[in-house]
Amino acid sequence: MRKETPVHALERLKWFTVSRLVDGLLHLEMWLPLRANGIWTRRSAFTEGDIRKAANTTNPRAFFDAFAGGGATVPITEEVVGVSAGSVGHHRLWFQSPFVSGVGANNTVRASLYRRARPAPLVLILVGTFAERFNSFGLSMAKTIAEKGSDCCWMAVPFSDGRSPAPGTSSFMTADPVATAESFIQAVMDVERLSHILRARFGYREIGLVGVSISGNICHAATFLQPYAGAVLIMAGASPADIVWHARGAYWRRLRRLMGRTHAFREVESLWTMSDATRYTAPNLCPRFLMLNGLYDNLVTPAHARRLNAVIQNCRVIWYPGSHYSSPLFIGPAVENTVRFFRGEPLKDTGLKPKALTAP
């Protein structure tokens, strides 16, 4: 832990101010479509009772198997887009989701595989987020990881990047907690199916997972379903229900009011059980984890991050002087540590801790 100096104090103030400005701008941008659309209707054939019944199990495998309905044959469409100057090939993949949602366009999973001319035995799956603006950063991050020497496949989560009937008509997270629970279930099952495809079609022997925000929880859940070489969780924390219920900002206040019309907090928490890392009791199939979190994050707070860290075995945490929405400013160091983590190289720690670097 580095010693505090006047220079460090100014640095704290600078990054805290930048983080809050970015937070405010993006909260406004997210609130406008929520105000216009309210609750989106897009439920699958499963009922709220089906999800609650499945959530009674402590076995993640049994929980997700209860919703499998994509069929045994999985048609895969592949398009080779081209090769960049760094000899990184771009393959676009489309395949059927094992979870059949109530919207046809959402049941085709989209992925982009960035593969070097001489592929390695390890590929990373970078799971997208429900915020469309951040998906462009995800694609850029996947390509950068490949250029640094690790093949990487970016996957769109449900109702994002073309998986909605029309732009702005739906979202991964909505004011209907049942529909949001379905999105989480579908995303975890999509990751598992993509893992099988990468192993069988492209010959990868090992797969690592990288998730940002709620996708970090998706990746953590996926590690209970099959073995992975490791997982990097960026801006992720325990209990998404608790995070949403206590998040600051106009978007989250509006979302809670809409949710509260039909469900109390405990009901939402029960529906989202399998997204809460603290509820898992089965053995994890991933040997090591890395968490990258923001000291000024007022969505996934340091307290939420520490709760997640406390229930994951063999997990390292590195803190950056940013917030949830200013995290793209630290995309460079995050990519570098992600590549180093999967190569088994020493990580570049900032030396920052929540107690040493708090908001002014």
Describe the structure.
This protein has 360 residues and is α/β, with parallel strands linked by helices. It has 11 helices and 9 strands. It has a 9-stranded mixed sheet, with helices on both faces. It is globular and about 55 Å long. The protein starts with 5 loop residues before the first helix and ends in a 17-residue tail after the last helix. The model is unreliable at 31-40 and 356-360 (pLDDT under 50).
Short characterization:
With 360 residues, the chain is of the alpha/beta class.
Which key terms come to mind for this protein?
nine-stranded mixed sheet; disordered C terminus; alpha/beta; 360 residues; 11 helices; 40% helix
**pLDDT < 50 runs, ≥5 residues:** 31-40, 356-360
Distance from N terminus to C terminus (CA atoms, Å) equals 18 Å
Large-scale geometry = globular
- Summing up helix and strand content along with how strands pair, one would put the structural category as alpha/beta
How is the main sheet built?
Answer: 9 strands, mixed
Radius of gyration from the CA trace? 20 Å
Strand content: 15-25%
User: How many E-type strands?
Assistant: 9
The average pLDDT is: 81
Helix content: 25-40%
Number of helical segments with 4 or more residues: 11
Q: In what order do the strands lie side by side in the largest sheet?
A: 1-2-3-5-4-6-7-8-9
Instruction: Give the topology string: H per helix, E per strand.
Output: HHHEEEEHEHEHEHHHEHEH
